[in-house]
Specification:
The complex is a heterodimer of chains A (115) and B (602). Chain A is of the alpha+beta class. Helix content of chain A is 60%, strand content 14%. Chain B contains 22 helices and 4 strands. In chain B, helix 13 packs antiparallel against helix 14 and helix 18 packs across helix 19. The longest helix of chain B is centred in the last third of the chain and has 40 residues. Classes of the chains: A alpha+beta (115), B mainly alpha (602). The interface between A and B is medium-sized, with 33 and 37 residues.
């Protein structure tokens, strides 16, 4: 299934923020989590992921730290307060969109229940 | 490992661009920056293809060394985690996507992360570069336009100037036959002068019977008889019909510049040539007792002067110059053959000099002012909107170049920029200076010649503008000043000729020359003007069968008619002397004529 690039631009950052809500994660972990939890739908090229992380960090929505304790260096990303607020706003917006789509018959009740 | 989600680009151009193989940036990085990331990549011990991908991304992402290190470490960690999870090299590379695209996106993202100081510097430097490019391009274009363009006159100025010249119906204009005849005579004179050995240089119009070249000049006149006949014939036509400026080519800047420099038109110059030739021919005719031809030449010269009496200041001056040649010819004839002249010829000469146009109103300073304004308006500004145009700059360039070339100043090329400067800054200043100088000339001219202050009018130089700004008004003012200096002399010459005729008439009636001019009849006496140099009556002496008339000359000292500088005693020497060296003309008296009674006549 192919997703329009504009749609992915809007959904990708929100998906990343949502993943980081549960705790800090490193890049490869985010890639895998996205693939698993969206049934592969939101799998993005990793060449896109890292620039997206840098952009979110530039906007102070996420923060990063290096961790060398496990023998190999990993850069962990976590949600900031600003990121949490942004995620709440984005979640509300997406729910509104899903509701509107559902009213239009684009989405069925079951598909939005988990949102 | 799931496949990457294929992001669709709608733009075919973008799709094409992304398909274009880009040169690797790896080899283009400075060695020092490469070393920053090389150590990190090698330490990660990734498979070669993965190391190479990281290297490519870092090279394209660029950034400061710390940023490069950060990217390299993160990507190495990413691939190391993938390898550790059991994903093979090929799958990892496929999932990662295009390293070139990743590098490009990372480059933008890295910049976004930088602080406001960097962003300020970035935009300020770009703005400065853009401004510098814009300004240099603008200057480049202006410079290119300035140095490569050859401005042309936008309007047909020559046509406008020539429209000022009155032209009569076909067949009534003298110039169509007079012009070629004058050209022929000028050419003949040039050829003759070239044939004369250098050590026998001859002032053609000063030749005397005892001169060695007298026979050759006689032959020259015989060869030119046809042209001289044309002059006499053309002088009888009612209109001159000459263009103000000859036009070998439309919008010919050279002709315009020459016309301005000479102030008076070319045809006026040629008309003076005609008058001089008629004078010379009259001298030879008088010497050979062909008095009818000699007197006829005087009448022809006067008619030529009439043709030039147009209502323009400059032509009137030239007309007066030609009338002066008529007076000079009369004096020459009376001095050579006075006693042989019949009463009828004497009457014809008297009538010729009575023609009122000869000197009347020759000074027309208002006419000069109009000429200046007219030319300045036509040449220095665009007549339609009053703004300086490139064509005007071109015209000014040419004029200033010409005028300074004629003054043996610096090279014409170096006047290109000054010409533009003179145009943009100096037009008003030029007019201002010209007006001031003209006012000074008017004030000076209102005084009798002997009360006029000596020295020349100096153009005001109070503004910090270079000398070149004076170029064009200076040309005008010098010409006008020259005319104001010479016109009293023209009047003097005409008065002297009339007095010579009166004295000869007195001799025929009384059998002797008058002892003093006061003996002349009242009607003749009023024609004797005062000496323009001191305001006293002209000096006259009669003794031993001869009579002389002289002026004290520019030095205002009576030396008994002794003329040290003016060897021949003719006014034209004074004129030529003034033209060449105004500071040297104050030597000796100005002998106007010396008549001899029949028994003493040569």
């Amino acid at each position: 299934m192919r997703i329009e690039i504009e749609l992915m631009r809007g959904a990708g950052p929100v998906a990343i923020l949502k993943l980081l809500e549960r705790g800090e994660m490193y890049g490869y972990e985010i890639v895998e989590a996205l693939a698993q939890r969206s049934d592969g739908l939101l799998t993005m090229g990793q060449s896109t992921l890292y620039p997206m992380l840098y952009n979110l960090e530039a906007k102070d929505l996420i923060a990063s730290r290096w961790d060398d304790t496990e023998g190999r260096p990993r850069k962990y990303y976590r949600l900031t307060a600003k990121g949490k607020k942004k995620l709440a706003e984005a979640t509300k917006e997406w729910r509104g969109i899903a509701k509107a789509m559902s009213a239009l018959g684009v989405l069925t009740h079951g598909t939005v229940a988990g949102a | 490992m799931p496949e990457s989600l294929p992001l669709r680009d709608r733009s075919p151009i973008l799709r094409w661009w992304r398909g274009v193989p880009a040169p690797s940036m790896q080899g283009l990085e400075p060695r020092r920056l490469r070393a920053v990331t090389r150590a990190i990549i090698e330490a990660a011990a990734l498979p070669p293809r993965l190391s190479n991908a990281v290297d490519q991304v870092v090279a394209r992402a660029g950034g400061f060394p710390s940023e490069r290190r950060d990217v390299a470490r993160e990507l190495c960690a990413h691939f190391a985690a993938g390898v550790a999870s059991g994903t093979n090299e090929t799958q990892l590379l496929a999932a990662f996507g295009d390293p070139r695209r990743a590098g490009r996106l990372l480059k933008r993202a890295i910049r976004r992360k930088r602080g406001w100081t960097w962003h300020t510097w970035w935009w300020a430097s770009r703005a400065m570069i853009a401004t510098a490019l814009f300004v240099s391009t603008g200057y480049g274009l202006i410079a290119w336009r300035f140095w490569s363009a050859r401005p042309a006159l936008a309007g047909d100025y020559l046509n406008s100037l020539n429209a000022l010249a009155p032209i009569g119906p076909e067949g009534t204009n003298a110039w169509p036959i007079l012009g070629p005849a004058c050209d022929d005579l000028e050419r003949a004179e040039s050829l003759f002068q070239m044939s004369v050995p250098h050590d026998k240089f001859l002032y053609l119009y000063g030749i005397q019977p005892h001169d060695e070249l007298w026979p050759q000049v006689g032959s020259l006149l015989s060869r030119s008889a046809e042209s001289l006949d044309v002059l006499r014939l053309a002088s009888r036509l009612p209109h001159l019909g000459a263009p103000w400026v000859p036009r070998p080519d439309a919008n010919d800047l050279g002709s315009l510049g020459t016309a301005l420099y000479r102030v008076h038109p070319r045809h006026a110059e040629l008309m003076e040539t005609a008058a001089k030739w008629l004078f010379l021919d009259a001298r030879f005719a008088a010497e050979s007792s062909d008095l009818d031809r000699a007197v006829g030449n005087v009448e022809a010269i006067v008619r030529l002067a009439s043709l030039l009496s147009a209502p323009r200041g400059n032509e009137r001056v030239v007309g007066a110059t030609i009338a002066w040649w008529a007076a000079t010819t009369v004096i020459d004839i009376v001095m050579r053959a006075g006693p042989k002249l019949s009463d009828a010829d004497l009457h014809r000469l008297t009538l010729a000099l009575e023609t009122p146009h000869t000197s009347d109103g020759a000074i027309d300073l208002e006419g000069w002012r109009l000429i200046w304004q007219d030319l300045a308006d036509r040449i220095f500004t665009d007549g339609t909107n009053g703004h300086i145009t490139s064509s005007a700059i071109g015209a000014a360039d040419e004029l200033v170049t010409q005028s300074y070339r004629s003054h043996s100043k610096t090279s014409p090329q170096s006047w290109r920029t000054p010409a533009v400067l003179a145009m943009t800054e100096g037009r008003a200043e030029m007019t201002h200076r010209f007006e001031n100088a003209l006012s000074a000339l008017v004030s000076k001219h209102r005084l009798p010649p002997w009360e006029r202050p000596s020295g020349t009018i100096v153009l005001a130089d109070d503004a910090p503008l270079p000398e070149r700004v004076n170029a064009i008004p200076d040309l005008f003012v010098r010409r006008i000043e020259y005319a104001t200096f010479m016109l009293p002399l023209f009047d003097l010459e005409i008065s002297a000729a009339q007095t010579a005729l009166a004295v000869e008439r007195f001799r025929r009636v009384n059998g002797r020359f008058p002892d003093a001019l006061t003996e002349l009849p009242e009607a003749d006496l009023v024609r004797v003007i005062r000496d323009p140099f001191d305001g006293s009556p002209l000096r006259y002496a009669a003794h031993d069968g001869s009579a002389s008339l002289w002026s004290v000359g520019p030095d205002r000292t009576d030396e008994g008619g002794d003329s040290k500088y003016l060897q021949q005693g003719y006014v034209w020497h004074l004129r030529d002397a003034y033209r060449d060296r105004p500071d040297l003309v104050s030597v000796g008296d100005l002998r106007l004529w010396k008549l001899a009674a029949p028994e003493f006549a040569p």
